[in-house]
Amino acid sequence: MSFKINFFIRPIDTGYRLQWEHFLIEVSLGLICSVMAFYGWNKGMLIVAVPCAAIAVSCLGLAFYSVCRLFLDKLGRT
Fold first, then answer.
1. What are the tens digits of pLDDT across the range 2-55?
2. Is 8 inside any structural domain?
3. How far is 59 from 29, CA to CA, in rounded Å?
4. 4 within a domain of the structure (yes/no)
5. Mean pLDDT within 55-71
6. How far apart are CA 51 and CA 57, in angstroms?
7. Does 25 fall in a domain?
């Protein structure tokens, strides 16, 4: 049995590009968890509100970080 091995070097893309699928998943999960945290807070269910708020803050924070990193990379290249 012979194996085909590729000896060519692949080019490396050094620029940062926003991965839209991950960004949309983070934003949608952040919005869903923030609505659940708001509902849990209004109903007095802290066992639901606190974890959902923590997840919402982390998801929206990561989405914000991704957008900031994209803009800072674009400004640094010019």
1. 777 776 777 666 566 667 888 888 999 999 999 999 999 999 999 999 999 999
2. no
3. 7
4. no
5. 93
6. 10
7. no
Domain that holds residue 67: 41-78
Overall number of domains in the chain: 1
In a domain, 3, yes or no: no
DSSP secondary structure letters along the chain: -------SPPP---S----HHHHHHHHHHHHHHHHHHHHHHHHT-HHHHHHHHHHHHHHHHHHHHHHHHHHHHHHHH-
Does 14 or 63 have the greater pLDDT score?
63
Nearest to 22 by CA among 59, 57, 58, 56: 59
Closest CA to 32 of 62, 59, 65, 5: 59
d(CA 74, CA 78): 7
Looking at residue 12, what is its pLDDT? 64
The owner of tokens 């934003």 is 27
